[in-house]
Amino acid sequence: MLITIPDVLTPEQVAQARQILDAADWIDGKVTAGYQSSKTKDNMQLPEGSPAARELGDMILAALSKNPLFLAAALPLRIFPPLFNRYAGGQSFGTHVDNAIRQIPGTPVRIRTDLSATLFFAGPEEYEGGELCVEDTYGVKKVKLPPGHMVLYPATSLHHVTPVTRGARVCSFFWLQSMIRDNGQRSLLFDLDLAIQRLGRDLAGNAVGETTSVQLTGVYHNLLRQWAEM
C-alpha cells in the first residue's frame, strides 16, 4: 500500500524549513546506511540530533499527530525521529531495502520498520531526476511530490532514488512501527475506515445509514483490537 499524503506541512512551514535546511551543514549520507545500502547510497544528510534536525523533526511529528489521513493509514505506534537528506550533482541511491530494526539514537528504544516515509521540501520544478521508485506487486511506482507532501509505503519494498542531474532534491525521511504489523491487515483497516467516513458523509441524517455506520465502526475497532500489537 503506497499512499500519498498531501499538505502535511503548510507553505509557511515549508518556507521556514527551507531557510533552515539551506543554511545547514550537511554530511555524507552513508552515516545512517546499513552494510548493504552503504554500497549504493550517495547523498548528503543533516547530522542526527543536530539542532536543525531536531527542530524540523519536531515540526513534522507535530503535524503528523494532527493529520487524519496519516493516522488512518499508518496506525503508528512508534516513529523514528525524522532525518533529512539532499541529492545534487548526479547523486542517487541504488535499489535497497530499509533495515528491519532501527535503534533511536541515545535511547534503548528499538522500532520495527513497518513503514517508510519521505516528505518533500523541494518542488518538482526545482530539480531533474530524483524520483523515488518503489517496487510493489503491480510494478514500479515513481514518486516526486510538491513541497509539504509525503509518501508512505511498506518498508519491505525494494526502492531507489534516481540520479539528480539538475538542482537539488531535499527531503525528510523516516520510519515507523505500526500497531498493525501485517501490511494486508493494515490496508483492510484503512479501506474500512475510509468507507465508514464516506458513509457518514453521504448518509448524514439517515437513520438506517447511521445505524450501519455504527455497526461498521464496531467491526473496525474489533478487528483493530484483535490485530493490534502494543
List key phrases describing it:
alpha+beta; 230 residues; 17 strands; 5-stranded antiparallel sheet; 30% strand; 8-stranded antiparallel sheet
Poorly predicted residue ranges: none
Q: Over the alpha carbons, how many angstroms does the gyration radius reach?
A: 19 Å
Number of strand elements: 17
* Tally of DSSP helical segments: 6
What multimeric state do the chains show? single chain
Profile the largest sheet: 8 strands, antiparallel
Structural class: alpha+beta
Proportion of residues in helical segments: 25-40%
H-E order: EHEHEEHHEEEEEEEEEEEEEHH
Strand content: 25-35%
Describe this structure in words.
The protein is α+β, with helices and mostly antiparallel strands and 230 residues long. It has helices spanning 11-23, 35-38, 51-64, 68-74, 183-202, 207-227; strands at residues 3-5, 27-28, 41-42, 44-45, 76-79, 83-88, 92-96, 101-103, 110-112, 115-120, 128-129, 132-136, 139-143, 150-154, 159-161, 164-166, 168-178. Strands 1, 2, 4, 5, 6, 10, 14 and 17 form an eight-stranded antiparallel β-sheet that branches. The radius of gyration is 19 Å and the shape is globular. The two termini are 22 Å apart.
